[in-house]
Amino acid sequence: MKKIKTIRSLKILLVVFGLALVHVLCAEENVDLTIQSNSLVQENAQRAVQPSPVKLDALELYREGRDFESAQRYADAREKYLKSAEVCREEIKENSRNIESYVVLGWSLIRLEQYSEAIKISNTALAISPKENRITETLAEAYFYLDNYTESLKLFEQYVNALPNGDRASTAYFFIGDIYRLKGKYEHADIAYSIAVRKSPGIALWWYRLGMVREMAGKKEEAKIAYGKALEYRPIYQEASDALRRL
Q1: Whether pLDDT at 80 is above 70
Q2: Does 22 or 240 have the greater pLDDT score?
Q3: pLDDT over 80 (residue 184)
Q4: Average pLDDT for residues 114-123, to the nearest whole number?
Q5: Which domains does the chain show, CATH number per domain?
Q6: On the CB side of 236, how many CA atoms lie within 13 Å of its CA?
Q7: Dist. CA 40–CA 36, nearest whole Å
Q8: Measured distance CA(27)–CA(73) in Å, rounded
Q9: HSE (CB half, 13 Å, CA atoms) of 215?
Q10: Alpha helix (H) residue ranges in 96-148
């Protein structure tokens, strides 16, 4: 009997010990799960705090470059144009038919004086969208700066015929005037410059160039008017002042 009681006592102890062990193991597992859970919470919190990378706007960078250029901060302007071109190239890698990226890239390359590259990019863009007039105008500018006036004139005229009131129409007419001036066709240049200043009257250089071709064509009184307008928009314009004294 005594032996049976002892065995029962041992069984009871084993059961109690087993329950205690299970309790300890469960507690340890809960602690481990709690630690893992806390770690995940902390990790997710850190991810939430970290800002997402900001997608740069190529057009905005280009416009900032123009603003710096207008303020004669040329080094800052160049940095903006370079960054704008970089963003455009990344966009084209993601979508090789993104015409907007080609447009802004072409503008940036012109400001960076990378004219041959601008021609290459513009031709690629026109193969995608042959009627994209903004690309045509960029291509015309690139040819102008490389002294290919024949091709440049053809493309500028193509642009103004397609978009006579386009955003770049006044600029296109100014370049047309420059080409005719360089070719010695002063009457043609007068017409083109006159359209340019009518569309964008606030640019002193354009009025000065108009005065130049009128003077070269022997139209002194009309030249005086143009030189006077140049001084109206830029009071300290030595060349325009000298021209008025000369006439």
Answers
A1: yes
A2: 240
A3: yes
A4: 98
A5: 58-147 (1.25.40.10), 164-247 (1.25.40.10)
A6: 0
A7: 6
A8: 68
A9: 18
A10: 99-111, 115-128, 133-145
Collapsing DSSP states into helix, strand and coil, what is residue 131? coil
Only one residue has tokens 């072409």, namely 106
Residue 197's closest CA among 154, 219, 228, 153? 228
52 pLDDT band, cuts 50/70/90, is very low
Burial class (CB in 10 A: 0-12, 13-18, 19+), 37: exposed
- Pair 181, 213: CB distance under 8 Å: yes
Question: What percent of the chain has a predicted confidence (pLDDT) above 90?
Answer: 77
Two tokens at 22?
A: 């299970």
Reduce the DSSP state of residue 231 to 3 states and report it. Answer: helix
* pLDDT band per the 50, 70, 90 thresholds, residue 6: very low
Mean pLDDT of 196-219: 97
* Both structure tokens of 144: 């102008």
pLDDT exceeds cutoff 70 at 11: no
Which two three-digit tokens encode residue 107?
């503008």
**Gap between the Cα atoms of 42 and 47, Å rounded:** 9
Tokens found for residue 155: 């493309």
The rounded Cα 151 to chain-centroid distance in angstroms is 26
Residue pair 80/62 in contact (Cβ under 8 Å)? The answer is yes
